[in-house]
Amino acid sequence: MAMLTNALSWVRSLQLRHFTHQEEVPEKYREDGILTGYRLAHQPWRYYIGSLFQIHNETLNIWTHLIGMFVIWYALGQYFLIYDWWTDKDSWPILTFGICASLTHFLSSLAHLLHSKNLYVHHLVFMVDFIGVVLFAFGTGILAMYSCSDKEMYSILRPFYLHLLAFSTWFNHAFFCFALLCFSGGPAVRKRRALQVSALLVEVLLIFVPFFPRYIKCFTDPDCSLHSLDHITITFPAFLAQAFFFLSQIPERIFPGKFDIVGHSHQIFHICATIAQLLQMRAVHQDIQNGVSSHAEPDLSTMLIVLAILISCSIGSICFLQKYIPCTLKKTKTK
């Protein structure tokens, strides 16, 4: 009985005091078109941990990623029933991608949960979040090269592709962090997001190179129908939807205050990311079944070592840049 009483007391201690309006939080915390539901700054850690179970403007940002992570784990479990992760080389890119996608969801969920603590934590946790964001691109490049690539293009890229992909991913992470330090909060958020998406375009091109010749060959071959590549093509709208909602901040920018809690663009962006990841794994599975990836020679230990080095270098970037994080909040005017 005493244990139950203590547990209930602990739960009650996690209750948020209240939420506040956009004008009462520092500008760097504000999102365009989201007017209410902001959490207070400078509260005990249990305040933010407890907000996981409260309704505010970050609740669904947190849970869309947590649920997305469990969805990816479930999908990996289904593929585990099909492939032998220990000996089947075709399954190793899926496994590596699954690790990257899981980190994407977990780190982003953590960032949305804790970032309101103070200005230093706000910047720091989103720098960590960016590791997950760029790992999504890294994992996509792994799939493009070792599961969906054109045979001739694979032969050309094989000696250097993985290392070039890792360097591009690390560079994007460093650039994301730099953009966060320079453009954070209020109208500057749109500029920052545009810069981040622009930086990713180089890596997007790098991801397209291994498999794009398949489209060219299929277009010029009268015996090949482009419909045979629909399983890959269907992933493109999901990626475009992510970019659209990430950049546009629609619908909340058009209807300020109407989507503060449910339905704002970042929540939709998270859902599109999970859908894209599932479609990617489905496309790879279909290519494996069709024998498209038979020419590839992925090495699980090499991919995981490069992944570990990439994460370590990104953490090193954060350690270097964290000294430039502002640690004080400017007082904001309230009406």
From TrEMBL:
Positions that bind Zn(2+): 112, 266, 270
Highest taxon in the source lineage: Eukaryota
Species in which this protein is naturally found: Mizuhopecten yessoensis (Japanese scallop)
Name the UniProt record assigns to this protein: Membrane progestin receptor gamma-B
Family: Belongs to the ADIPOR family.
Biological classification of the source: Eukaryota, Metazoa, Spiralia, Lophotrochozoa, Mollusca
Keywords: Membrane, Metal-binding, Receptor, Transmembrane, Transmembrane helix, Zinc
GO molecular function: metal ion binding; signaling receptor activity
Coiled-coil region list: none
Membrane-topology descriptor: Multi-pass membrane protein
PANTHER family: ADIPOR/PROGESTIN RECEPTOR-RELATED, PROGESTIN AND ADIPOQ RECEPTOR FAMILY MEMBER 3-LIKE
Cited InterPro entries: AdipoR/HlyIII-related
Transmembrane segments: 62-82, 94-114, 126-148, 160-183, 195-216, 228-247, 259-280, 300-321
Record's GO cellular component terms: membrane
Localization: Membrane
